[in-house]
Design a protein that fits this description.
By secondary structure, the chain is mostly helical. Helices cover 59% and strands 0% of the residues. Helix 1 packs across helix 3, helix 1 crosses helix 4 and helix 4 packs antiparallel against helix 5. The two termini are 28 Å apart. The model has no long low-confidence stretch (mean pLDDT 81).
Length: 110
């Protein structure tokens, strides 16, 4: 974890807490694409295969046992949710109804 930048460490912390990319992006006031890119860089630097590896490495790098226990609880909850999920759809659902996209400006408060 020493080779990560401050931003990457923050993102690894939020991943270990169980937040999804959208939630992390909202907390840090950046786009989800930026979070995805940082996560990809974290995985390369740590030789992690997935989010679970990032979580495990982050937990093992912590010094304070209370933080380890807190992060461990979230990791176990995350694994349990993945293993017990039966209605997981990997593909984006096909919308047969033609829809019209309206472009406009979005107000972001950060």
């Amino acid at each position: 974890m020493d080779q990560l930048t401050k931003t990457e460490t923050k993102i690894a912390h939020h991943i270990a807490k169980g937040y999804v990319f959208k939630e992390i992006a909202d907390k840090l006031c950046v786009s989800t694409h930026t979070i995805h890119t940082h996560t990809k860089n974290i995985r390369k630097k740590l030789n992690a295969r997935n989010i679970a590896d990032i979580t495990r490495m982050y937990i093992l790098s912590l010094d304070d046992p209370r933080k380890v226990l807190f992060a461990l609880v979230f990791a176990v909850m995350q694994i349990a949710m993945v293993l017990t999920s039966t209605d997981f759809e990997a593909r984006k659902p096909v919308n047969r109804v033609a829809s019209r996209t309206v472009k406009g400006r979005r107000k972001i408060e950060c």
